[in-house]
Amino acid sequence: VTERLSRAAAEQLDDADPLAGLRDRFVIDDPSLVYMDGNSLGRLSIATEQRLARVIRQEWGGGLVRTWEDWLPWPGLVGDRLGEALLGAAPGQVVVSDSTTVNLYKCAAAAIDALPERRVIVTDSENFPTDRYVVEGLARERGLTLRMVRSDPVGPLTAEMVSDAIDGDVALVTFSHVSFASSAIADMPAITDLVHRAGALVLWDLSHAVGSYPVELDASNVDLAVGCTYKYVNAGPGAPAFLYVNRARQPELRQPIWGWFGQRDQFEMGPAYDPEPGIAQFLVGTSPALGLAAVDEGLKLLAEAGIDRLREKGVALTSFLIDLHDAWLAELGFRVGSPRDPATRGSHVALRHPEARKLCAALIERGVVPDFRTPDRLRFGPAPISTRFVDVWDAMDCLRSLAAQ
Ligand SMILES: Cc1ncc(COP(=O)(O)O)c(C=O)c1O
């Protein structure tokens, strides 16, 4: 057992890793830093740094407003590339724009307004705060009822757990595909089916899934989805989010923020709002060209790695972490706050400990960077594209020495 969990064993896993070389494509100024927060803010790639430098200097600095013609199609262009590489979405259904929160609002409101005779929105108690707040606000605004499914803080959300909450009064059901807290993967295909059988629409938040788990939006017949790009897609702080609207639903949905980027023949500047018929209707205002360039570069690298290989490595990294926990940390007051079954676990692991907040600060002081989530979770997100098995080993080794003090 000791042999399998030795640092030399971690080095062997790195030697055998087909994605190992991709780490060199990232800016790593401090090679001793053990970065375990790829599920919060992904690393900067060298290609992204170079692309942004070009966009800033040549396209903005040199081209000035003349470059707008080039930038205008980016939200849909980058959206199509994202859809193909990571979301299982055919072209014409994804745009990159705004923040996840704003996209959630647009998509949730569009779904609710499409089924005006239905008075209920369903989400779950463990969903990410912004998701819960957005639907709480919408329910208040429209006089609807918000129904909260009590979900499991560790295990995955299943169709069985949500079935009692879904009936003919429900307009919209929204959950996260991969839980920000536990990393548990909700059963997207089965839950989507269940929602459709009740005649309602479903909206998935893919923030922790995109770039770490092969999502199949078209095949699962999902109605709507949103997600951020600054985690596993490595597009940087505040990079624009994406939204997906199933082509079959587009004609019946109208989003609530009527901006000029959703307008047909935008530069005709017509007197009244007359939205584009397709996914472009879901755009609002001027697109962030710098952020879009970063999303484009980020997803190019993920596409090169291949989402199936990234998923496979994510399972291997998190399984290794849990094995080290079991050998070293269980006896020091830790427990695993994520599913042990890799089939229902995303690319991060939550370790729970009463002193998690203090331990997180102490780890960061020693150059190991996870994050803390209230009340007692240490989240370790070893992004498969840039993290080594020795990083996982070093992080757990540092944690055991701190916890044993
Ligand atoms: C599931 C989920 N949704 C949304 C967000 C953030 O939303 P925004 O990008 O609007 O800040 C996060 C951030 O961690 C998240 O984990």
Give an overview in words:
- This protein is an alpha/beta fold and 405 residues long.
- The strands form 3 sheets. It has a 7-stranded mixed sheet with strand order 2-8-7-6-5-3-4, with helices on both faces.
- It is 38% helix and 12% strand.
- The two termini are 24 Å apart.
- The mean pLDDT is 97.
- The chain is built from 12 helices and 13 strands.
- Helix 2 (46-62) runs antiparallel to helix 9 (289-305) and helix 4 runs parallel beside helix 9.
- The protein binds pyridoxal-5'-phosphate.
- The site of pyridoxal-5'-phosphate has 13 residues, from helix 5 and helix 6.
- Pyridoxal-5'-phosphate (PLP) is lined by residues 99-101, 128, 130-131, 176, 180, 205, 207-208, 228, 241.
Ordered list of secondary-structure elements with their pairings:
Blueprint: H1 7-15, E1 34-35, H2 46-62, H3 68-71, H4 74-87, E2 94-96, H5 100-114, E3 120-124, H6 129-142, E4 145-149, H7 159-162, E5 170-176, H8 188-197, E6 201-205, E7 224-227, E8 242-245, H9 289-305, H10 307-329, E9 335-336, E10 349-352, H11 356-365, E11 368-369, E12 371-373, E13 377-380, H12 389-404
Parallel strand pairs: 1-11, 3-4, 3-5, 5-6, 6-7
Antiparallel strand pairs: 2-8, 7-8, 9-10, 10-13, 12-13
Helix pairs in contact: 1-12, 2-9, 4-9, 5-6, 10-12
Give a brief outline of the structure.
With 405 residues, this protein is of the alpha/beta class.
Shape: globular
Q: Report the β-strand fraction as a percent range.
A: 5-15%
Radius of gyration: 22 Å
* Largest beta-sheet characterization: 7 strands, mixed
Average the pLDDT over all residues and give the rounded result: 97
Helix-and-strand structural type? alpha/beta
Number of strands: 13
